[in-house]
Amino acid sequence: MQPSLVWEGYMRPDDIDIELLKRCQENPGSPLAEIFEPFLIKLSERALYNRLFQLEAHRFICVDRASRRGRALASLTELGEKTISEAGLGRARPACVAGGSL
To answer: What pLDDT, in 10s, does the model give residues 64-74?
Structure first.
């Protein structure tokens, strides 16, 4: 597994992470599996879950595991919104790392 890149004390999201954050923004409160579904042609389910867990660990998203039994529901945090905004300004981000996990 690749170590997380550090950016201002947090991991530095790559293009796929930014797209996952955008999906959380567009579909707040959606199950994790629905957030990453469009990316299954690029990466494995496990790699995508790992990415979302890393985004949660670094506080880009908030995952509610209590509201619906057996479902983890993702919502974007303020840091996640800031990251999407900065990505829209064309700030440099690393390309996806082979293997897809951070």
So the answer is: 888 877 788 99
